[in-house]
Design goal:
By secondary structure, the protein is an alpha+beta fold. It has 5 domains: 173 residues, no CATH class; 188 residues, D-amino Acid Aminotransferase, Chain A, domain 1 (2-Layer Sandwich), CATH 3.30.470; 104 residues, Beta Barrel (OB fold (Dihydrolipoamide Acetyltransferase, E2P)), CATH 2.40.50; 120 residues, DNA primase, PRIM domain, CATH 3.90.920.10; 132 residues, Alpha-Beta Plaits (2-Layer Sandwich). The protein contains 17 helices and 43 strands. An 8-stranded antiparallel beta barrel has the order 1-2-3-4-9-8-7-6. Strands 21, 22, 23, 24, 25, 26 and 29 form a 7-stranded antiparallel beta sheet that branches. Strands 12, 13, 14, 15, 16 and 17 form a 6-stranded mixed beta sheet that branches. A hairpin with a 3-residue loop joins β1 and β2. α12 runs antiparallel to α13. The longest helix has 18 residues. It catalyses: ATP + (deoxyribonucleotide)n-3'-hydroxyl + 5'-phospho-(deoxyribonucleotide)m = (deoxyribonucleotide)n+m + AMP + diphosphate. GO terms for molecular function: ATP binding; DNA binding; DNA ligase (ATP) activity; DNA-directed DNA polymerase activity; exonuclease activity; metal ion binding. This is DNA ligase (ATP). Its cofactor is Mn(2+).
């Protein structure tokens, strides 16, 4: 079964529990007991009385990746699994557990440090311990791959299961699942976070690090450098401050150190009030630094390790008087007048650093194990200032602030040639992501844009004249103008070489810019990101006075969306009531539509007075969102030419009088070849409005590979007496079930009475038969496990009080309502893609309508289906093992 589940640390090579008994030879082979304090073990298996109690231990292990080792005594050894995320008391959390070699019984008491260079090097504590009781014969259960047991520990208790995934990993991968009982906890609190300490000593991992001699820290660093081929470097040990605990008595764990940065929103007005702190906006690279075990790492926003690029900065951070810390700041290159210069920073990264780079630090997220993020910013900065060097002239500098008159501060910043200022709420905690607590106000506008082409240089064919720039909007790459200044001779040559490697014949911009049709234009794959400075935008959304500042190697091209300065950030508003949503949105759009409509004033939704022109206006507003799900797909259309309240009919095939803007494709159907319609663009979409189409249904495959679906749909169709909350619960159940099979899903409100759970499939390798068989298996097993709740048959007589899990959408020729399509119902609801976070019992299937959908789309900060067409996941193979896994997962749901 193609479940690709792996855990890389520690390695679990050549170990399998299929044979139940493993000697300690593998354990001893991997360790040098003259170097490590781990117990060697006698290798003798003690005899146990029939009623002897079996011990268990869970050890928290900070190897190269933090994980938890679950060990169960059996046959005189400790059967062991490495659990990356640790045990969870939430039955919905199915935690991967990778079988590793047997450990000796003495290992249950081991706490301490495994030296650098040794297998599993890192700190270990006994996180939990106690007695375990198997429900059935444990040896037989392990051989069958389904071990049920009860724990009686100091932290963990209740009933648990270990289920083996007999896949390509040789049976090493298991799932550790908490059963539903009194010890279960579904409130979202993880015991690994709330109780991180040892049950033996009360120590944390950080405390064990403190107890190590400085020589150990240096030895570990040197060993890692030797692995990379770096020379040995002697370093002096520094005295570290003791680890502190925060107000809740917990330390900042290794897993928490992967912190996403807090981001600022673009604003045009400086906020007022004494609670605001105003800082200089630097023109450099935003980096978060983690200091631990005498080693400093520098991370970009995309979690790229750039320590090697700024070795001088990392060396300076190691000298700080702290055992551990997390700093947030920006690395800049300063010009002679002290202003940050992005071009100089680019030159420095290319090896021509004329002046030392500086790390301006503006926030402190952790210090000596204490999580400072809940503290107000003003307190975090006070501690940061005390930590950093006092000179203010070295590689590390404190980013000072001004409180009070931010407008004057901005004016002075602009006169000095700075990029702008950042205004922050001094009384607020650190919160990852973008919010109104941090605002950026710019002097000169700057944006990241993607290079989509260039013009050839008439003077030198090794160089270019201008760069053609754009950004991604949904699946389209939009043109933003050209830039022809800001390059030096070396960049003109080196960048041209990179562009030549990406030349393509077809224009990547959609639509093709009319001003870029000359013979000198060359198109390239939109992969390289540039930093552009400019004064504004024209009415055609083209840059004014752009200047090239440098490359943005820390950004991916697909992350560059519509520029903030072109379309300022909008807040994601709280969910309104239906009445509020309709009232606050325009009931009828008056925007001009260039399309030859007949009878544009014909009323299609009489209860609302919405006309054909209103429907066309809606189609135009959602076209960029909707077309990616229509392109190249055969359509099945519900037409209501006289309006929703009158006669409607389905049309699948092209007929006389069908608008030419709709593309035709030929499809074999049983004994004949028929013509279907496809809407690939806005004219095609508007043609559907002209035809009075109130519902657009699409195939689950595209015309280029018609026999291979690229998504899977579970249509949850409740009987009239089933409450909506049960439909929502079922959607989450199917989401978790498919997640256990490595399939990520997306929810969609159908606009009717149901809900769709959709799983994208890429690459397209499973045919319709396999897709139907897989979805049918899921539906039937759910109906068998919960016969009072679900049915997998179409018979309406059998649906009373139940939810029909309709898997038949996954059959050749079957269709599903398209995302953003209207429905032929009186209030003009629409089929709306949402996120799992949004899905709740108070969000009914028909909540979003033609009248309030535009408000929703304008308020979104991020497309809830952003990754839908980017995911790489395929349908698991249907076999007995898969059915067993599904059955076990359903039983534990």
């Amino acid at each position: 079964m193609p479940l690709n589940l792996q855990f890389l640390e520690p390695s679990a090579d050549s170990c399998s529990l299929a044979g139940v008994s493993m000697s300690l030879a593998e354990y001893q082979r991997k360790r040098h007991f003259r170097k490590t304090a781990e117990p060697k073990g006698t290798g003798r298996r003690k005899k146990q009385a029939g009623n002897a109690k079996l011990t268990f231990v869970v050890q928290k292990h900070a190897a190269s990746r933090l994980h938890y080792d679950v060990r169960l005594e059996l046959g005189g050894v400790l059967k062991s699994w490495a659990v990356p995320k640790g045990p969870s008391l939430n039955p919905s959390q199915k935690r991967l557990a990778v079988a590793v070699e047997d450990h000796p019984l003495e290992y249950a008491k081991f706490e301490g440090t495994i030296p650098a260079g040794e297998y599993g090097a890192g700190e270990v504590i006994v996180w939990d311990r106690g007695i375990w009781t198997p429900v059935n014969d444990p040896r037989e259960s392990l051989q069958k791959g389904n071990l049920e047991f009860e724990l009686h520990g100091e932290k963990l208790s209740g009933n648990w299961r270990l289920i083996q995934l007999r896949g390509r990993e040789g049976g090493k991968n298991w799932l550790l699942i908490k059963r539903h009982d009194a010890a279960a906890n579904k409130d979202g609190t993880e015991l690994t976070d709330s109780s991180p300490e040892s049950v033996i000593t009360g120590r944390s991992l950080a405390t064990i690090v403190q107890g190590n001699p400085a020589q150990y820290r240096q030895t570990r660093r040197t060993t890692e450098k030797e692995r990379r081929g770096a020379p040995k470097v002697a370093a002096r040990a520094k005295t570290r401050a003791p680890t502190k605990r925060n107000s809740k008595g917990t330390t900042f764990s290794g897993k928490q150190k992967r912190v996403a940065p807090q981001l600022a929103k673009l604003a045009t007005i400086v906020p007022t009030g004494d609670e605001w702190l105003h800082e200089i906006k630097y023109d450099g690279y935003r980096l978060i630094c983690t200091l631990s075990n005498g080693e400093a790492k520098l991370w970009t926003r995309n979690r790229l390790d750039w320590t090697h690029r700024f070795s001088g900065i990392s060396a300076a951070i190691v000298e700080l008087s702290a055992s551990s810390a997390i700093l947030d700041g920006e690395i800049v290159a300063l010009s002679e007048n002290g202003v940050s210069n992005f071009q100089a920073l680019q030159n420095a990264l290319q090896g021509s650093e004329s002046q030392p780079l500086v790390y301006y630090v503006f926030d402190l997220l952790e210090l000596n194990g204490e999580d400072l993020r809940p503290l107000p910013l003003i307190e975090r900065k006070r501690r940061l200032k005390a930590l950093l060097p006092k000179s203010g002239a070295g590689r590390l500098r404190f980013s000072d602030h001004l409180s009070g008159d931010g407008s004057t501060f901005l004016a002075h910043s602009c006169r000095l040639g700075l990029e702008g200022i950042i205004s922050k709420r001094g009384d607020r905690p650190y919160s990852s992501g973008r919010s109104n607590d941090w605002l950026k106000i710019k002097c000169l506008k700057q944006e990241e844009l993607v290079i989509g082409g260039f013009t050839a240089s008439a003077a030198d064919n090794r160089r270019f004249g201008t760069l053609l720039l754009g950004y991604f909007h949904g699946r389209k790459f939009k043109y933003a103008g050209r830039v022809g200044t800001g390059f030096d001779s070396r960049l003109l040559t080196s960048l041209r070489a990179e562009l030549d490697e990406r030349i393509v014949q077809e224009c990547p911009f959609d639509p093709i810019p009319t001003r870029e049709r000359g013979p000198e234009v060359r198109w390239v794959l939109p992969q390289l990101v540039a930093q552009i400075q400019f004064t504004g935008w024209t009415e055609e959304a083209v840059l004014r006075h752009p200047v090239f500042l440098g490359r943005r190697e820390d950004k991916t091209a697909r992350s560059v969306g519509p520029p903030e300065s072109l379309a300022p950030d909008r807040e994601s508003n709280p969910l309104p009531t239906r009445k509020q949503a309709i009232k606050s949105s325009p009931s009828k759009s008056k925007s001009a539509i260039d399309f030859p409509f007949t009878n544009p004033a014909r009323i299609l939704y009489p209860d609302l007075g919405l006309t054909k022109l209103d429907l066309a206006s809606y189609c135009q507003q959602v076209a960029d969102w909707m077309l990616p799900y229509l392109e190249n797909r055969p359509l099945s259309l519900l037409r209501c030419p006289e309006g929703q309240a009158k006669s409607c009919f389905f049309q699948k095939h092209a007929a006389a009088g069908t608008p030419a803007a709709l593309r035709r494709i030929e499809i074999d159907e049983k004994h004949e070849r028929v013509t279907y319609l496809v809407a690939d663009d806005l004219p095609g979409l508007l043609s559907l409005a002209q035809m009075g189409v109130l519902e657009i249904h699409v195939w689950g495959s595209r015309a280029d590979r018609l026999e291979y679906p690229d998504w899977l749909v579970f249509d949850l169709d409740p009987a009239p007496d089933v409450p909506w909350s049960k439909v929502v619960e079922t959607a989450f159940l199917i989401r978790d079930l498919l997640s256990a099979l490595d399939l990520q899903t997306f929810p969609k409100l159908t606009g009717g009475k149901g809900l769709h759970v959709v799983a994208p499939l890429s690459p397209r390798r499973a045919d319709w038969k396999k897709a139907k068989e897989f979805s049918q298996t899921i539906a039937q097993l759910l109906a068998q496990e919960y016969p009072d709740c679900y049915v997998a048959k179409m018979s309406k007589a059998a649906r009373r009080g139940k939810i029909f899990i309709d898997y038949l959408r996954n059959d050749r020729g079957s269709t599903a309502i398209a995302p953003y399509s209207t429905r032929a119902k009186s209030q003009a609801p629409v089929s709306m893609p949402i996120s799992w976070k949004e899905l709740s019992p108070r969000l009914a299937s028909d909540f979003w309508t033609v009248q309030n959908a535009r408000q929703r789309l304008e308020s979104l900060k991020r497309n809830p289906w952003q990754e839908f067409f980017q995911l790489k996941q395929k349908l698991p193979k249907i076999d007995r093992n898969l059915r067993r896994i599904i059955s076990n997962a359903i039983a534990d749901s």
